[in-house]
Amino acid sequence: MDSxxxxxxxxxxxxPNSVNLYxxxxxxxxxxxxxxxxxxxxxxxxxxxxYIEKQIDELKLSNVLLxxxxxxxxxxxxxxxxxxxxxxxxxRGLWNQTEWEDYAEIKANPKExxxxxxKVETKLYKKVPLHDMRMDLDSMIKKIEKKRILTINHDxxxxxxxxxxxxxxxHIQLGEGAYDHDYNSIGFDEIQMMRRILxxxxxxxxxxxxxxxxxxxxxxxxxxxx
Length: 226
What we know:
Layout: H1 19-24, H2 33-58, H3 63-91, E1 97-107, E2 111-113, E3 116-118, E4 121-132, H4 137-146, H5 156-167, H6 182-185, H7 188-202, H8 215-222
Antiparallel strand pairs: 1-4, 2-3
């Protein structure tokens, strides 16, 4: 970390694994615009995860700042997993598709029925060429699990669903009650869960070309086991 301090003027500063190494370490083809975009964003995010690991390792932070660093790691890690799941589902022809799109909406005037005010709304759709639907991360996790696309233990999926909920804390206005905040929700157990799940998914044979590239995640996980 000292090599990154500007005033130290270090000639050989710390640098994460190269973008090209990360791109070559996964099985997303680089022969289309979508594949090139996915590979690039994957590599950038993995470099950032390396940097977060270095911050956790070498900086003496307050408990609040450490919790927020864990949160950033989880948000970035789950973004990587979402990208990989998007690739897997599309590659196997399992992405949700539809041939209908919204066309119009008809709203009736409110009526009183048995003392309650009700109204009817009718949505019209028109038929169009088959196209991809939007899939959220929860839908992806369920389909990956149901179709058994990855050779991973079943206990990975409950952890993925928990991490997805933590990733949603990017919306900092959400929560239940005064004490449902980031500091009370994200700690050592959660960052360890993220490390374990991210490493497991990155090194599955359906995704990985070079597991050694991702070993730094496993190293940081195992050295902190109680």
